[in-house]
Specification:
heterodimer, A: mainly alpha, B: 255 residues, mainly alpha, disordered C terminus, transmembrane (chain B), cell membrane (chain B), MetI-like_sf (chain B), transmembrane helix (chain B), membrane (chain B)
Chain lengths: 233, 255
């Protein structure tokens, strides 16, 4: 800590390559699990909106499990636990194809799907029932009224919460380090232990995380502002 | 299923208190102590941060805003690494994992709680502050006697749910070898080696039971607060109900 020297890390080809690899993997894990989470959340929401009692109970249980169990524990359950129950052939195939990252993506995605589906649902619940009645009265089918009238408003309502949870998904991707995914936090610890420059390497990682989080927050705020309909509430 | 019962019977003490009589206090007790201390110590810090964020003074507003945004934008794991590295260099001797984790939680939760408190203050009608000032309170007097009591009470539900997420965040102590519940489960897993699913299933189930029951409990508190707020804010039912009986009463009393 005697001299603060960022270039010692940034200009070192080995360290900077490690960091770039780390950030790439962080982005990959975050993007893949975001996509998984969003598509699963839409499925969960659809299930919840059906009139089937068992489907609603299933979604409620799913959401409650993923909200009440720490994300790190979910990661461990997937990586150490559920992976051991898979058939041997699949295990072997996975361990050849970066099993840690796959399980990190799956468990982060499944976990965040619960949050996303709740965000979407509360966005939907904020729409007065008159909207859907009016849409049906104007001759829209159920799907049509959802597609053209309800969902565009519900997504606008849910947007701030969705952005917040996207940021926390991005931040949670750092937990994958605990099961050995070589993402940014992992790479930084490697750089630190090799270069003995803890302050500089943590500083670089913090700035990177902060910049990306602020970009997501900013993009969310921009989108919310852009999508707001003038005159609507 | 039998395996799970067997593992629980053999290791329940380790999961509950860690190696306590012979070693550091651990397990679920450590998790709970860590989260309670974390939130209790963070609360007194969160109020000044919230007030600083609301202040129009640039020298108060800017640092608080930067702090909140940095903590919100950086993963908790990164903050743990910072504290793990900075704390010993600042105070000059080794710091146990428990204290490192506690420090991290206090910083992290103070920033999040300050947002909760700020939202509570902003949700109050402006008239509260104006009336308090008009009655002769200074800024701090108005805050202390009028604004904060209401704002803190109203934001109690969010603070309680923040407590549940603190319990979940203590799991990260595992990374720096704090002997809490996740760490204990990993110890069991390393001893058994052959039953990872059962061990981590028990771990997930324990967290679920703790957090789910707390969420339910806090939910009922939240409803009570909501009812109380509704009762004081809209005295409609209280004013309406007496207006009906009197006619009845007088009719009965007349003869």
């Amino acid at each position: 800590m005697n001299d603060f020297n960022l270039t010692a890390i940034l200009m070192n080809p080995e360290y900077s390559a490690m960091l770039i690899k780390g950030i790439k993997l962080t982005l990959l894990v975050a993007l893949c699990s975001w996509t998984l989470a969003m598509s699963l959340a839409v499925c969960l929401l659809t299930l919840r909106l059906t009139s089937l009692k068992w489907a609603q109970n299933f979604v409620a249980a799913y959401v409650s499990y993923h909200r009440n169990v720490p994300t790190l524990v979910q990661l461990m359950l997937w990586y150490f636990g559920i992976s051991s129950l898979l058939p041997n052939a699949l295990q072997a195939w996975l361990s050849e194809h970066n099993a840690e990252a796959v399980f990190a993506i799956v468990s982060l995605g499944l976990c965040q799907a619960a949050y996303f589906s709740e965000d979407l649902r509360s966005g939907l619940r904020a729409i007065p029932s008159g909207q859907s009645e009016a849409a049906r009265a104007l001759g829209h089918s159920y799907i049509g009224s959802m597609r053209h009238v309800i969902m565009p408003q519900a997504i606008r309502n849910a947007l701030p919460a969705l952005v917040n949870h996207s940021v926390s998904l991005f931040k949670n991707s750092s937990l994958a380090m605990a099961i050995g995914v070589a993402e940014l936090t992992h790479a930084v610890k490697e750089v630190e232990s090799q270069s003995f420059r803890a302050f500089e390497s943590y500083f670089i990682a913090t700035v990177m995380y902060l910049a990306l989080s602020l970009i997501i927050m900013g993009a969310g705020a921009w989108l919310t502002k852009r999508l707001t309909i003038a005159g609507a509430r | 299923m039998l395996d799970i019962v067997q593992i629980l019977r053999d290791n329940w003490l380790l999961l509950l208190v860690g190696q306590y009589p012979n070693g550091p206090l651990g397990g679920i007790v450590c998790t709970l102590i860590l989260s309670v201390l974390g939130i209790v110590l963070a609360f007194p810090l969160s109020v000044p941060i919230a007030l600083a964020r609301l202040s129009s003074n640039r020298f108060l507003n800017w640092p608080a805003t930067v702090l909140v945004y940095v903590v919100r934008g950086v993963p908790l794991l990164m903050i743990i690494l910072w504290v793990y590295f900075l704390l010993p260099t600042l105070i000059g001797h080794d710091v146990p994992g428990f204290a490192t984790m506690l420090c991290t939680l206090v910083v992290y939760e103070a920033a999040y709680l300050s947002e909760v408190v700020r939202a509570g203050i902003l949700a109050l009608p402006r008239g509260q502050m104006e009336a308090a000032r008009a009655l002769g309170h200074g800024y701090f007097g108005a805050m202390r006697f009028v604004i904060l009591p209401q704002a803190l009470y109203n934001s109690l539900p969010s603070m309680l749910s923040q407590f549940v997420s603190t319990i979940q965040e203590t799991t990260l102590g595992y990374v720096i070898n704090v002997p809490e519940l996740t760490f204990a489960a990993n110890q069991i897993n390393n001893q058994l080696l052959t039953k990872p699913f059962q061990v981590f299933f028990i771990l997930a189930l324990t967290y679920f039971v703790v957090c789910f029951s707390l969420t339910k409990l806090f939910g009922s508190i939240e409803q009570r607060i909501a009812r109380k707020r509704l009762g004081t804010a809209t005295p409609v039912p209280a004013a309406n109900t007496p207006s009906l009986p009197p006619s009845n009463l007088s009719a009965k009393q007349l003869p």
